[in-house]
Amino acid sequence: MEPYKDLGKSYIDGEWKEGNGNRSFDVLNPFTQKSIFPFQSASELDIDEAYTAAEEAQKEWAETPPSQKRNIFDEATRIMKERKDEIIDWITREMGGTRTKAALEWGLVLENIRVASGYPFTMNGEIYPSMIPGKESRMYREPKGVITVITPWNFAMTLSMRSVAPALATGNAVVLKPAEDTPVTGGTLIAKIFEEAGLPKGLLNVVLGKGSDIGNYLVEHPVSDLVSFTGSTPVGKGIAVRAGERMKDVSLELGGNNAFIVLDDADVDKAVDAAIFGKFMHQGQICMAINRILVDKKLVDEFTKKYVEKANAINVGDPKDPETELGPVINRSQAEKINSMIDKAIEEGAELLTERKTEGNLIHPVVLTNVTNDMEIAQNEIFGPVATIISFDGDEEAAALANDTDLGLSGAVHSGDTERALNVANHIKTGMIHINDQPVNDDANAVFGGEKQSGVGRFNGDFVKEKFTTTKWVTVQHKDREYAL
């Protein structure tokens, strides 16, 4: 089995092509900061070609029998398993993910394909009773048409596949633009898998480039019927405005400011273990990662002491090393941004409890205490290996602090009493929340999405199927009808 080639090219209408844009980019290994390969950005003409191919291919694909669609997804599943090591290597090299993170992501991608493989058999319609004699009232479910998918760099393959797989499985065609930091894992690797699986040409197109260069053109393109975007809230708002002006549907999963709540009857050791994972998995570069750790004042000293001990024991280094637990952040710009947030928090009165150390893009775990909910670091998504601990007094204050943000994506509550934890959880406005666990959870068959400014719509399971399809009402008048004015 030969490794995939041409991964630094755009994939348009079944052909691997150099982009015709006027900018080129170097894809850098986040750990070594050395070039993996350069690529040329797609131009607007390339994008037009991708949408033309998608629009044409989708017509026949929509009529393809469900068994044929499913066969392609089954083959993609087989290829994912066969190329597991190759995929994991790309996640490590391009995203800076540890071996553990890479294996986790591979599993999530596999499950997205497997769950989507059943969608072609569930494009069900309905028949309704009619108020008019002799009339049959039907509802048909149909694909939207052409789905635009724009994805970020942090869980690039997962966040692309969770839109690409269900979009294709429900009869749509796709134009995908991955982040410029992760064009392979977020885009061309997926195209290679489906190409090898036998997906007809034109159905999946990948255009490479920077969002600020070609993003607006993708969002506004008249062939696109829906824009599925995962990324920051400010960018998502801009997409929503542009799409709304064109009466175009959107599916948006945006930023998170997720609270991890420890009530006064929680098992501290279990809460500490969960909070270490939920904060430092993939260097905290996950939309669902813990942003604020809220601990009841009765437990805050014990929790903080144990948490700092665990944080200091995390093995930081080269993500290729199986022993590494925390690797680099994605690039130098992100490292500088995170360190600026730490500086500001300390200026505002936060106390640093860990040794502060940055080596290139490696930021060693940071734990800050004496944090208040009005500090900048508590109000903004950190997206890095920085834990902030905030104390509270009682369940009501815990919920109030958790809600004191414009975002509402995920969260967690720890308690020795499940019903008590559920009561607190039900008072928090968030799309997802987990009891006696941590907020980084994603099941391909379970609803995924946020409230407030954390997004619009839902991913996974039947929820994304609803988003990527539309309905048509058709009636058949079997008996002659009298029309009286």
Fraction of residues in helix: 25-40%
Instruction: Give a count of the beta strands, DSSP E runs of length 2 or more.
Output: 24
Overall shape: globular
CATH homologous superfamily (4th level) name of the largest domain: Aldehyde Dehydrogenase, Chain A, domain 1
Largest sheet, in brief, is: 7 strands, mixed
Q: Calculate Rg over CA atoms.
A: 24 Å
Give the C-level CATH assignment of the largest domain. Alpha Beta
* CATH arch. level architecture of the largest domain: 3-Layer(aba) Sandwich
Poorly predicted parts:
none
| Distinct helical segment count | 15
How much strand content do the residues show? Answer: 15-25%
Q: How are strands sequenced across the largest beta sheet?
A: 14-17-18-13-12-20-21
Mean pLDDT value: 97
Distance between the termini: 73 Å
Query: Number of folding domains?
Result: 2
CATH topology of the largest domain: Aldehyde Dehydrogenase, Chain A, domain 1
The helix-and-strand class reads: alpha/beta
What does this structure look like?
This is Aldehyde dehydrogenase (NAD+). Belongs to the aldehyde dehydrogenase family. One of its GO terms (molecular function) is oxidoreductase activity, acting on the aldehyde or oxo group of donors, NAD or NADP as acceptor. Keywords: NAD, Oxidoreductase. With 485 residues, the protein is an alpha/beta fold. It folds into 2 domains: 264 residues, Aldehyde Dehydrogenase, Chain A, domain 1 (3-Layer(aba) Sandwich), CATH 3.40.605.10; 178 residues, Aldehyde Dehydrogenase, Chain A, domain 2 (3-Layer(aba) Sandwich). Helices cover 39% and strands 21% of the residues. It contains 15 helices and 24 strands. The strands form 7 sheets. A 7-stranded mixed sheet has the order 14-17-18-13-12-20-21, with helices on both faces. A 6-stranded mixed sheet has the order 9-8-7-10-11-23, sandwiched between helices. Strands 5-6-24 form a 3-stranded antiparallel sheet. Helix 8 links the parallel strand 10 and strand 11. The chain is globular. The mean pLDDT is 97.
